[in-house]
Amino acid sequence: MINCISFVGTGFVIGVLSGLFGVGGGFLLVPLLNIVFNIPYNIAIGSSLLQMVGTSTASSLKHRSYGNIDYKLAGFILIGSIIGAEFGARILMWLKSVGTIMIHGSTISKMDLWINFIYIILLSLVGISMFLESKKARKREPRGGVVDTAFSQKIRNVKIPPITSLPISNIEYISVCYLVVLGFGVGILSGLLGIGGAFILNPALIYLIGVPTSVAIGTSLFQTIFVSGYGGLTHFFKGNVDFALVACVLIGSLVGSQLGAIIHNRLRGACIRYYFSLVIFIAIGIVLFKFLFSLGYF
Questions:
Q1: Which residues pair with 106 in a beta bridge?
Q2: Residue scoring higher pLDDT (183 or 62)
Q3: What 3-state class would DSSP assign to 109?
Q4: For residue 169, what is the DSSP state?
Q5: In whole angstroms, what separates CA 80 from the centre of its chain?
Q6: Average per-residue pLDDT in the chain?
Q7: Which among 2, 52, 205, 264 could disulfide-bond with 216, CB atoms 3.0 to 4.6 Å apart, if both were Cys?
């Protein structure tokens, strides 16, 4: 009963993050389940993906009412991400089977080692770059959440067919190939790490393609429904889902996601990116502490 209440509370926090930052919350939920509740990574990953379907759906409906979803953009990304999700899940199952390794006198699963390593590297890259950019952006005049970089301009100017336009995202033309490849990378992360991929997709849409922050967040949430749904399904067949855990977390996250979306609509894009980077740093600290603790450093 105590664990159930704790899971509901954890779900509420994850839900607020989902609605506010346009993420499924898996990048924080998975390490929390593993570190705080001692749930194996493979179960935490599979269960996290499944609960994200409900959380992302609730958040998407709220963002849809604000006009923050580019369905056309989400569709192209999904083409690659569904394929990538299967690749990621298979990589995870392979890591699960490769055994253990001795580090600093402690035996640790190679699966845990690699997942911790990937988490820390990815979160660090995203968090630091977003923190530095948004800190500067908060001091200038609002630009509608758009971050126009030299790289995003180059991406939009390379006309590799087929070409499409994205009016909702204020993009005149862009190659579909870029969007599919981006989706494939997000899908791999989803299946491997138990995330909807939005903590990578959001910055990619904002900084690499030039999508306005609010539209990037709403679109990421919408595609997370399908990516996490497929990832959760494939992990279910691999025995990596705890339905009682999913139900408890989902109860809290459904409530929290509505609150997060309301808060999001009252903040500047630069502020949202800044606060998101701080949450990422918290996640890095949690993962790093548990990893060092398991090696006997604390």
A1: 103
A2: 183
A3: strand
A4: G
A5: 16
A6: 82
A7: 205
Give the span between the Cα atoms of 57 and 134, in whole angstroms: 27
- The residue type at 204: A
165-190 pLDDT, tens digit each:
888 888 888 888 889 998 898 888 77
Distance CA 249, CA 260 (A): 16
Residue closest to 28 by CA, chosen among 184, 223, 196: 196
| Number of alpha carbons in the 13 Å side-chain half-sphere of residue 226 | 19
Tell me the average pLDDT across 139-166.
Answer: 72
Amino acid, res. 117: F
Residue 69 and residue 60 in contact, taking contact as beta carbons nearer than 8 Å = yes
Q: How far is residue 279 from each of residues 56, 187, 283, measured CA to CA in Å?
A: 18, 22, 6
Strands 100-103 vs 163-166: parallel, antiparallel or unpaired: unpaired
Q: Is 172 helix (H, G, I), strand (E, B) or coil?
A: strand
- List, for residues 106-121, the tens digit of each pLDDT value: 777 888 788 888 878 8
Q: Are 147 and 137 in contact (CB under 8 A)?
A: yes
Single-letter residue type at 270: A
Q: Which helix (H) or strand (E) holds 175?
A: strand 171-175
Q: Cβ(30)–Cβ(41) under 8 Å?
A: yes
> Is residue 72's pLDDT more than 90?
yes
